[in-house]
DNA sequence: CAGTGGTCTAGACCACCAA
DNA sequence: TGGTGGTCTAGACCACTGC
């Protein structure tokens, strides 16, 4: 451990001190990971920004560069940070061209394709139903923002989505703001509401189109649709968005890679 | 690099020698990864077996332990190896209790659940249709094994699967052998045919039940089913199995985690 | 050129496991 | 107790980026 008594940054960094007896052993790099995570959570380092260099962090935290490296490696593996050789390490963001629509797994059968158009049909403040409240860890009846939109691929409506967001955090969200923003909606959430979606759980089912679906997706009633229910989380495993999508899977499919 | 001239193991290990000018730079640990992969591919180290220790490999390959470590770390990340502290590093296998049914993402809505029963309806040698041949990289009309089975969850039929395998490799596969084997089918493939499935691509669609499906899955005709087309790969990204499954998603769902 | 991440080493010590 | 993987260090050198 370097002896330099300067550049102390985190007075709370009791790193490298094994206190007490009962608490389970925690490797140094895990503690460093936690410290970095705290900076991300509290918005100290924002999406798209560069974080201090490995050497810098090593000095601040009073550990070797290799230890910081391992911490950053794991965070980069979780898509929380992005390393760029020669440039630095950056906070991941949904705004990047390369990883845009990271959570949208619908592909055209012939290969790629991204939504060509987005139509926001509705966005309003409502009271949370029981299941929405449960998913978002709110009290039943609490205010939530509810939006509905259609995604078009090559001019054809393929996805109908209902979205629920905590009313507290997303106060002021309107159909206008959702529709006019260029780029992924999750990028807008970062920029305008300071919320970064980190991971998500999806539950998929096959369902029959209702009259509503049929109209909005331009298919026959009772025709099969892929129902995708997504719960997205920010830092700290806090649920921040519930989304129920209905996908037309004629000539498109949901692609999943299993390791 | 240690100077010990002993314990040479791989005469082909030109590791640490940057030859030529044109070929792109390849880190040492990548080359080590390749060497380990070759051992796995050629069946030198079989599923479930322990591979040599890090120190042993470091000596064989004439590199430092840290370099071997990084190579193994990545292979473990890809689920090709499994590290067990205090015991050693092992070749991953589908036979392990903990990761059984790793590729089956169907869960009951109330939580977990694994298939309680497996009924093999059919297994025979046929000529590959055009699309099966394309997926498995065979010539159209070449021999393939084709099987059909039903998976039951808590006594209820939930999954109907058609499976296609290269006839060459899976010669001798019968319904009897598929049905009587205890444990995952992929574990049997490892044990009896020396084929380990490493990863898979899945394409999901919502479809309407045909008369066939209705009968075998005990649902009404045209009722929505989740169609899961899976292409599984062995080492070297060689396609080794095509599987088309139809899932009943009443009270069950396909679960996916997005990072 | 300086600064960043990427690779590689050599050695120390720790945690875990089995005999 | 000895062997295995797991952590941590300190320092060297390389590859990439941008000024």
Task: Please outline what is shown here.
Two copies of one chain form a homodimer. Chain A is an alpha+beta fold and 259 residues long.
Helix content of chain A: 10-25%
Distance between the termini of chain A: 38 Å
Q: Count of DSSP E strands of chain A? A: 11
Low-pLDDT residue spans of chain A: 1-22
Of all chain pairs, the largest interface belongs to:
A-B, 32 and 32 residues
The largest beta-sheet of chain A arranges its strands as 5-6-7-10-9-8
| Oligomeric nature of the chains | homodimer
How large a portion of the residues of chain A is in β-strands, by DSSP E? 25-35%
Shape call of chain A: globular
**Rounded Rg of chain A:** 22 Å
Major sheet attributes of chain A: 6 strands, antiparallel
SSE class of chain A: alpha+beta
**Mean pLDDT across all residues of chain A, rounded?**
91
Secondary-structure element series of chain A: HEHHEEEEHEEHHEHEEE
Element layout with pairings:
The structure is a homodimer of 259-residue chains.
Chain A: H1 28-41, E1 50-51, H2 54-61, H3 65-77, E2 81-84, E3 88-91, E4 106-108, E5 117-127, H4 130-136, E6 143-153, E7 156-166, H5 175-180, H6 185-193, E8 199-208, H7 211-217, E9 224-233, E10 239-247, E11 252-258
The structure holds a DNA duplex (19 and 19 nucleotides).
How would you portray this structure in words?
Two copies of one chain form a homodimer. By secondary structure, chain A is α+β, with helices and mostly antiparallel strands. Chain A is 25% helix and 32% strand. Chain A has seven helices and eleven strands. The first copy, chain A, has a six-stranded antiparallel β-sheet. In chain A, strands 1-3-2 form a three-stranded antiparallel β-sheet. A two-stranded antiparallel sheet of chain A has the order 4-11. In chain A, a hairpin with a 2-residue loop joins β6 (143-153) and β7. The radius of gyration of chain A is 22 Å and the shape is globular. The two termini of chain A are 38 Å apart. At the A-B interface, β8, β9 and β11 of A face β8, β9 and β11 of B. Chain A binds a DNA duplex (19 and 19 nucleotides) through α3.
